[in-house]
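Reopening this one. Same input as before:
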Amino acid sequence: MRLLIVDPFGEALDFAMRCQRDGHDVRLGIKLDEKTKYIGKGLVSVTAEYQKWVRWADVVFMADNTLYTHDLDKWRQQGVKVVGSSIESAAWETNRSVGMKVFQKAGIATASCKEFKSFDDAIAYVKREDRRFVSKVLRQVSRGHDLHAAAVEEAGQADGAVRAAGVHRRSGDGRRRVVRPGRLFGRLV
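Same output, byte for byte:
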């Protein structure tokens, strides 16, 4: 089988090597930059231009759901066999409010949360409540900008922690969004 692995950040090299070992003809599409330029060299066939190999492949496997999802959805509409998330299913992970609605629709409990339109509003809320919170940005814009939690242990740390969660992170419409998730069974869900 001819397999194209679209892996912009070079995280699926092990998968590519196993597929090649099992007799498949593999191309690993990596977005080449200073961090990724040596990934897979000499181990598998690496390309910076995965688009040239889409029609060649029997199957295209997506190792990521943020960078090339829109492009690969277009290829999928043209009949290319793509294994990986669609724009809609990627939003379940990259847009917290969408993911929570999917869970709620399926009857799966989610942590309570409060959405804020600005970081200043979120900071004021945390200071006013004077209790422990976890701050999350609603929407992941790109893999290059980590949008992980900033745990706020006490109100005095709220300002820096909430702002740290949102530095250089904006939604597609240019607005910053923050949610304040609650806790469910002692774990953040």
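So the earlier flakiness isn't reproducible anymore. For the record, The chain has two domains: 2-91, 95-181.
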